[in-house]
């Protein structure tokens, strides 16, 4: 799996410049657009009182927006400059830790949130992120910008060609995402808007844009923001060469991270074992590495139909460290209890040997704190591991490394002066993201939550995921769309007899109901494939708690049946 993921992530950096339809990250047109956008960043930074830079997205795209804005603003603060970056995540800050997929469907909400954040500003650089070029929330925002080009410069970041942008109707709208993307392209000719859409190749798990899509979002936007910053404050002109230089630095992070494939494979194996035994994986992170952990953990719920506590993240100092807009959200429920102290108080007392604990830290984090917490964990379990970053001239002491079973320790070839730089930290974040994406994906594959490379047990919580569920059913059963829709609705509404109300309801009613139900897609798949009732399908799934086994068994039995027939 590590080798597959390694090859898959390599496609982010593929240098094929001869395909006119599919621009890659290194294609000259993409680099030039990045230069153009970096120049807009520079302009905004030179006029901080009147300007704001807004990054917005849904799910992982919103979480990456939050992370980038937080670290860029921290850098500005440290240099006594005005913090002019802001983030929007569909569903608000709670979406950083939990899956809030429904607001993604609401273009008016997107536009309204953007309008509010930019009130009174004369110049707005808006970067709307939608990896699949599909999120109505972002389309609504881009449409709003296109109507106010005197103030807004909209940028669309995604990883599909414009002609493949989503063209399904959006709630309460006369246009769809593709219309907006085409209008953006038209405005790009006058440099009034920009579309940044290199193709990255397919995701390892079909549709899991949190992986390559999320990594590329981070690489591209960090390069743009840092280039704009260097131009504004260090007089360093933004050129295509300097943008390629930033990308090449990320490519080096990729190479270095995957050169530790043995340790990575060991961590995937360990996490898979824990999930298979119905135990848990806990990421205990420091600073922004903690945020990477929280992000990776939260994505497993919609992607694999996981429970929120299958894989969970914790961060030192909880929400104080997050520095999110809405502050401490811990009163919202157990998913929002995220501090190390919370881990010690609520999880540690019942921690078992089957639970895996994975520390995420770097040499400049508080190593006394790391050691003290590792000591506490070790008193309950030896299933304690780490991903740790240090530098050739500033290494983590062996006594600390020896506390962990498997330690994926990356010693980076940078000078010790770089240790506190934002750039160094961003590289460690990217490296940790690649590792955790591999661990959580691999562990769910081992748990049997993936069939072929499809997320067969996804949560059907918005219109995009509803369409994806139908596509998955059609692909595996070969049945007509209408048959698949009927089976899906039977699973969603938990009934054999679909009423007229149910079949005629709109997709948002379906997703609202589906959001509250488990194993919707597997149930529908078994019903279609085995030609059985809802009760029989559920019984079949109960007999095969591993979803992949359940699907395999029903395909095998229908094969045998048709041979006999
Ligand atoms: O709808 C859920 C989801 O697929 C998330 O898992 C994902 O991070 C998010 O949508 C954003 O997708 P996109 O960046 O393509 O808009």
Automatic annotation (TrEMBL):
<dbReference type="GO" id="GO:0019899">
    <property type="term" value="F:enzyme binding"/>
</dbReference>
<keyword id="KW-0119">Carbohydrate metabolism</keyword>
<dbReference type="GO" id="GO:0005829">
    <property type="term" value="C:cytosol"/>
</dbReference>
<dbReference type="InterPro" id="IPR046348">
    <property type="entry name" value="SIS_dom_sf"/>
</dbReference>
<dbReference type="Pfam" id="PF22645">
    <property type="entry name" value="GKRP_SIS_N"/>
</dbReference>
<dbReference type="InterPro" id="IPR001347">
    <property type="entry name" value="SIS_dom"/>
</dbReference>
<dbReference type="GO" id="GO:0042593">
    <property type="term" value="P:glucose homeostasis"/>
</dbReference>
<dbReference type="GO" id="GO:0070095">
    <property type="term" value="F:fructose-6-phosphate binding"/>
</dbReference>
<dbReference type="InterPro" id="IPR005486">
    <property type="entry name" value="Glucokinase_regulatory_CS"/>
</dbReference>
<dbReference type="InterPro" id="IPR040190">
    <property type="entry name" value="MURQ/GCKR"/>
</dbReference>
<dbReference type="GO" id="GO:0030246">
    <property type="term" value="F:carbohydrate binding"/>
</dbReference>
<dbReference type="GO" id="GO:1901135">
    <property type="term" value="P:carbohydrate derivative metabolic process"/>
</dbReference>
<feature type="domain" description="SIS">
    <location>
        <begin position="41"/>
        <end position="234"/>
    </location>
</feature>
<dbReference type="GO" id="GO:0004857">
    <property type="term" value="F:enzyme inhibitor activity"/>
</dbReference>
<dbReference type="InterPro" id="IPR054017">
    <property type="entry name" value="GKRP_SIS_2"/>
</dbReference>
<dbReference type="Pfam" id="PF22198">
    <property type="entry name" value="GKRP_SIS_2"/>
</dbReference>
<protein>
    <submittedName>
        <fullName>Glucokinase regulatory protein isoform X4</fullName>
    </submittedName>
</protein>
<dbReference type="Pfam" id="PF20741">
    <property type="entry name" value="GKRP-like_C"/>
</dbReference>
<dbReference type="GO" id="GO:0005654">
    <property type="term" value="C:nucleoplasm"/>
</dbReference>
<dbReference type="GO" id="GO:0009750">
    <property type="term" value="P:response to fructose"/>
</dbReference>
């Amino acid at each position: 799996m590590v080798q597959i993921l390694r090859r898959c992530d390599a496609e982010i950096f593929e240098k094929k410049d001869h395909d006119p339809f599919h621009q890659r990250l290194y294609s000259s047109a993409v680099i030039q657009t990045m230069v153009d956008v970096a120049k807009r960043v520079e302009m905004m930074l030179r006029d901080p009182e009147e300007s704001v830079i807004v990054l917005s997205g849904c799910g992982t795209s919103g979480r990456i927006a939050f992370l980038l804005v937080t670290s860029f603003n921290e850098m500005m603060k440290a240099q006594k400059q005005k913090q002019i970056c802001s983030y929007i995540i569909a569903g608000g800050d709670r979406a950083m830790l939990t899956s809030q997929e429904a607001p993604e469907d609401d273009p008016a909400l997107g536009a309204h949130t953007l309008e509010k954040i930019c009130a009174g500003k004369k110049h707005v650089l808006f970067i709307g992120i939608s990896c699949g070029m599909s999120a109505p929330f972002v389309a609504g925002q881009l449409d709003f910008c296109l109507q106010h080009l005197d103030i807004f410069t909209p940028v669309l970041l995604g990883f599909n060609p414009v002609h493949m942008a989503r063209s399904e109707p959006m709630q309460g709208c006369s246009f769809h995402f593709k219309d907006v993307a085409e209008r953006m392209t038209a405005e790009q000719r006058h440099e009034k808007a920009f579309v940044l859409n290199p193709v990255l190749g397919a995701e390892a798990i079909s549709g899991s844009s949190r992986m390559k899509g999320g990594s590329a979002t981070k690489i591209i936007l960090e390069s743009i923001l840092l280039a704009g910053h260097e131009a504004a404050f260090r007089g360093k002109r933004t050129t295509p060469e300097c943008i390629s230089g930033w990308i090449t630095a990320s490519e080096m992070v990729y190479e270095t991270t995957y050169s530790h494939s043995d340790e990575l494979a060991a961590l995937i194996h360990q996490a898979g074992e824990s999930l298979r035994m119905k135990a848990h994986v806990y990421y205990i992170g420091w600073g922004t590495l903690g945020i990477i952990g929280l992000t990776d953990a939260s994505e497993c719920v919609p992607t694999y139909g996981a429970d929120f506590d299958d894989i969970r993240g914790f961060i030192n100092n909880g929400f104080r460290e997050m520095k999110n807009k809405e502050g401490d959200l811990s009163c919202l429920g157990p998913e929002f209890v995220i501090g190390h102290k919370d881990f010690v108080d609520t999880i540690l007392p019942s921690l078992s040997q089957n639970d895996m604990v994975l520390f995420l830290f770097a040499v400049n984090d508080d190593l006394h704190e790391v050691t003290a917490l590792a000591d506490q964990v070790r008193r309950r379990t030896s299933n304690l591991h780490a991903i740790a970053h240090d530098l050739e001239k500033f290494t983590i002491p062996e006594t600390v490394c020896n506390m962990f079973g498997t330690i994926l320790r990356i010693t980076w070839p940078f000078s010790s002066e770089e240790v506190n730089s934002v750039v160094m930290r961003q590289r460690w974040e990217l490296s940790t993201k690649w590792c955790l994406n591999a661990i959580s994906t691999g562990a769910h594959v081992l748990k049997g939550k993936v069939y072929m490379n499809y997320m067969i047990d996804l949560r059907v919580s918005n219109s995009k995921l509803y369409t994806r569920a139908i596509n998955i059913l059609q692909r595996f059963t070969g049945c007509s769309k209408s048959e698949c829709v009927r089976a899906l609705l039977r699973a969603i509404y938990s009934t054999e007899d679909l009423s007229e109300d149910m079949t005629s309801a709109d997709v948002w009613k379906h997703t609202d109901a589906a959001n509250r139900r488990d194993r919707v897609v597997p149930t529908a798949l078994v019903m279609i494939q085995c030609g059985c009732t809802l009760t029989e399908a559920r019984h079949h799934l109960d007999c095969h708690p591993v979803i992949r086994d359940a699907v395999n068994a029903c395909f095998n039995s229908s094969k045998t049946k048709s041979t006999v027939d």
